[in-house]
Write a structure and sequence with these properties.
Number of domains: 2
Structural class: alpha/beta
Radius of gyration: 19 Å
Shape: globular
CATH topology of the largest domain: Rossmann fold
CATH architecture of the largest domain: 3-Layer(aba) Sandwich
Largest sheet: 7 strands, mixed
CATH class of the largest domain: Alpha Beta
Helix content: 40-55%
Distance between the termini: 33 Å
Amino acid sequence: MSKNAAHWSRIRTGDAPGVVLAVDFYGTGRQEATFRHLCDLLTDPVEVWHAVPPAPDGDWSTATGAGHLRWWTEGLDTVLAGRPVRALVGYCAGGVFASALADALVEREGHRPRVVLFNPGAPGVATLTRDFHGLIAGMDLLTDGERAALLAETTAIRRAHAPDALVPVAERYAALYREGCDLLCERLGVDASFGAELAAVLHSYLAYLTAALDVPPTPLWRGAVSLTSREHQGTDFTDVEHGFDVARAELLSSPQVVAALTALLREYEASR
C-alpha cells in the first residue's frame, strides 16, 4: 500500500459516481456498530473509504486538528484517483472532522459534498468515560473485582476534575488503563511490551479526541444532516436532525438509518 493510501482504508467497493469518505475511530474495544456494519446494509453501489488516524507524534495531548486534517487530505489524491467526493459521513467526534474535511474540499471539488453525521458532537469527559468503561469491561482476563476497582477509579478521577477537563482526565485514564494492561500481561505471561502496544491504541484515540476539540466550527457545518439515536442529547450541531428509535450501539447497523442515508445521498445526486 502506498504511503498516501495508508491515510485511508477502503471498506466498501462500488462503481457509483463519486466516493463516500467516513470518519470514526474504532480500535478501542467499543461495542457500538461501525461504518463497516453500515456498509453491509447499503444497496447502492457506492465506494466507501474510512479515515485512518495518524499515530501520535510523541505526546498525544499535543495533537492538533490541523495536523489530523492535513494527514487525511494528503492521502486523498491516491484514494480518489480523479473521482469526486460524493459525501462525507462522521460518527460522534468524527462529525467534527467530516465537517472540517468538507470545508477543505470546497475549493478542491468546486462544491460542498453532502455531509451526513451520526450522533455528532464535540468530545467531552462524558464521551471519553463511556468509551473507557467499555475498554475496561472488555478486559475479560481481569476478575470482576479488578474491573470494578478500575471503574471506581474512573469515578474518582472524574469527580476530581471539571466537566470540560478532557486532557487531564484522559491522562489519568491512560495511566489507569496501563495498569490494567500490565495486569493482563502478567496473567497471560507475555512481555510488558504487549501492554505498551495496547496503550498505544488508546493514545491514538486520545489524540483523535484532543484534535477534534482543536477544530473550530464554521457556519457551513450547520448545513449537514444529523441522524441520531434515542439516547443522543441534542448538541445543536446541525439545522436538520432526524431522530430514530434505536439504541446508540445500533445506530450504524439500523436498516431505517441506512435507508435515510441512502435517500439523502440520492437526493444530493439528483440536485446536482
